[in-house]
Amino acid sequence: MTETTQTAPRAADTSALGLIAYSVTVLILAFGKSGIVKEAGGLGFFAASALVTGIVLVILAFRAYAAGDGLLATGYGVNGVLWLSWWGILHEGPAGDIHKTQAFFLLFWAVVALFVALAHLKAERGALLVWATWFAALLFLALGQFQNGADPDSLTKVGGYLALVSGVLALYAAGATIVNAAHDKPLLPTL
Question: The whole model's pTM is what?
Fold first, then answer.
């Protein structure tokens, strides 16, 4: 009779799911704000993605907090609340010209993203890169709204391209996490 050994199940790593949710929503935003995609219906895709991503990230924040990872919980929670707030503005927000209000909204979230980026100075370099480019993207998106509110003006386009970089970095980090975990060894380099 042969004995089989059972290995304890590995704890689930929620970072890949969080990064995928974040990256898809940021990339949809980036394509619109950079001017790469100019379809009027793109706003509906962004709103739906912001809602789903916001819910997913808030759930992951609670899970990370319960696991004792305060920095990951904060990152998930901050982005979850941002996306849910943005969805609320798009879904229920006032009609008319709100570009200065949106500029302040983006500026406040840029400051929060800066704090989270600074917290990642002692953490993973990939997370720092994602948060730093997200901070810069939000800052330029805010400045674009302050400038004149016409989408996409030059500062808004810069913000869109910075968001594109942040989204691509997050998507790569998610892919590396998934592939490396599936193979139990680093096949793809992490950022």
Answer: 0.89
